[in-house]
Amino acid sequence: MFKIFTHFRKLAIFSLICLILSWSLPVQADTKIPPQLEQQVLEIIRKNPEIIIESVEAYQQKQQQQLQQSRQEFINNFQANPQAVIGDSPTTGATKSKTVLIEFSDFECPYCAEAHKTLKDLLTKYPNKFTLVYKHFPLYQIHDQALPAATAAWAAYQQGKFWEYHDALFTNQKQLGETLYLDTAKKLNLDITKFTSDRKLANNPIQKDLLLARKLGLGGTPSFIMTSESFAGPVKLTEVEEILQGKQLSNK
Questions:
Q1: What angle do CA 211, 61, 25 make, to 5 degrees?
Q2: Which CA distances in Å does 249 have to 155, 159, 172, 192?
């Protein structure tokens, strides 16, 4: 009986997946589920909702475990070899500090613009205490200019002017667009021909940052991950100063 139930459960889940896929695929794909099978699946769900609920919960639990494992591996690597995690990303602040703060940010995100002000204050207040690393996390699904702004900033980085360009984008966030990108490049005396060419090469490094953000399960911007002698892991911007002052976080 148990084997029959298990087989029935697997069949129900498989049928449900097929049904969901058919509902989500474009019409052009012409992938159809027979009406009789569709009704059978819906009837199974109606009579045995616990089968679906249990399966979804098990799947979510597995995903969460994998995410936690992935995050922990990243944090361990970050602690052991910060430079490998920093890679080719832009950095500012202390050059040889054991405290490194990674920011995942979006130039069109208003919360990132506010965080930018706080980070500048922290860099001024603690110039030799931490290294700030910028990772691109453009939320292009909801911000039209997030990706173009990121590519422009990456191109400016190729000429050693990332942070100046970064500051200009956040300061003029409401004017994000092609005019601002070119005007800012000219004001910073960038080689416009190279700038234009480099923008076309920015996709791969930006996608690399995006993949890392997704691997870590970051849900939005800005997001921060920090490592120091006393702390390692995701951190809120409001907690950064406490760590810099050597305080232990009560909720960590």
A1: 60
A2: 38, 39, 35, 46
Q: 246: Cβ–Cβ under 8 A, 6 or more apart, which residues?
A: 230
DSSP 19-78: HHHHHHS-GGG-----HHHHHHHHHHHHH-HHHHHHHHHHHHHHHHHHHHHHHHHHHHHH
**Mind spelling out the 3-state secondary structure of 123-188?**
HHHCCCCCEEEEEECCCCCCCCCHHHHHHHHHHHHCCCCHHHHHHHHHHCHHHCCHHHHHHHHHHC
Closest CA to 150 of 180, 115, 107, 201: 107
Residue 220: DSSP 8-state: S
Indicate the helix (H) or strand (E) that contains 93. Answer: strand 91-93
pTM above 0.85, yes or no: no
Q: Which residues contact 176 (CB under 8 A, 6 or more apart)?
A: 107, 108, 145, 148, 149, 169
Per-residue model confidence as pLDDT tens digits over 144-201: 999 999 999 999 999 999 999 999 999 999 999 999 999 999 999 999 999 999 999 9
The candidate with the shortest Cα–Cα distance to 230, out of 101, 120, 98, is: 98
